[in-house]
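Q: I have 106 residues here and want to know how they pack in 3D. Can you give me a structure?
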Amino acid sequence: MTKNGKLVGIISRADIVRALAQTRVPNPISTVDNGTLQKAIQDEIKKQPWINATYTNLMVRNGEVELMGFVDTADQKSALRVLVESVPGVKKVVGDVKLRQWQTTS
């Protein structure tokens, strides 16, 4: 290192290693196994009064959630996706939830 053209110190490899060793690393993101994550998502869905969980299904593989099933409105479809994405451990949401077509009888 120089200051005003004069050598004022040398940084050695040991200095760098020492500085790195003192650096705090945030806790790594823990991975959740597929079954635990699937249950957590299903539990969150079941808590919601705005959706009938009977018509939804999902599969989890390495943090990727495949959503399937039916909902009543486009708002429910969007909200379901946001709900699933907010569960810790979910990395990606794929699949297609369809709008349920109601049949009326005369």
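Q: Anything worth noting?
A: Helices lie at 13-22, 34-47, 74-85. The longest strand covers residues 64-71.
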